[in-house]
Amino acid sequence: MRALSSSDMLQLWERGYGLHPLDQGLIALAAGSPGTSLDAWADLPLGQRNRALAGLHSMCFGSQLGGWVPCPSCGEKLEFELDSAMLLAGASVSSETVTIEGQSFRLPTSRDLALAAREIDLPNAALILAKRCSLDPDASSSSWSEALIEELGEKMALADPLAEPRLSFACALCGHAWDELLDLTGFFWTEMEVQVRRLLREVHALARAYGWSESEILTLSQARRAMYLDMVRSERLLA
Ligand SMILES: [Zn+2]
Fold first, then answer.
1. What is the per-residue pLDDT for 239?
2. Segments making up each domain of the chain, as ranges
């Protein structure tokens, strides 16, 4: 994994604009690891994908993840901040497979999740995921009870805790307690959009002042860009 340059981020933002968050996460990982294809990332268990996404976030923007969530009961805003290194340290894959009633299943990947996510009905989506992950070619999904599917979800979450990392919240105002999914792709993408917006403002200011092209401006180091921007600003103040 490598940190993304200014032009990498610009290209990634443009490529991922309007895509499903699952795809945004995968193309971000492929951009940060030129040796690993998009397909290879799509076929990795979700926890490994999330671990790599947290690593990419850390390299590009630091390891602090913060924000706020509204209390579902009273609407109070709860602020939070955590270090992704702490999150990763306490969550490792305990087993690559899960067995229930003698049937084995592998851990779900982004590709499995993308197919299941097309189904609006949640029980059906869980069944699609179970079918995709079944390691028994003779397994008959019609014999799977609702309880089996539910237990499968719980065991998969235990085996791969980073597949759907959750944060626990307790509202100081009304006492309500709940869990919230930690959206690592969302964190990365939001932070990248802030950077891209800043970058495009800089390109705009320098292109106007010097007549340079976008690619010429992007090849400047951040230090040189900042220096030219300082000069443009001070010239405007003097004018
Ligand atoms: Zn509350």
1. 67
2. 1-65+81-88+182-239, 97-159
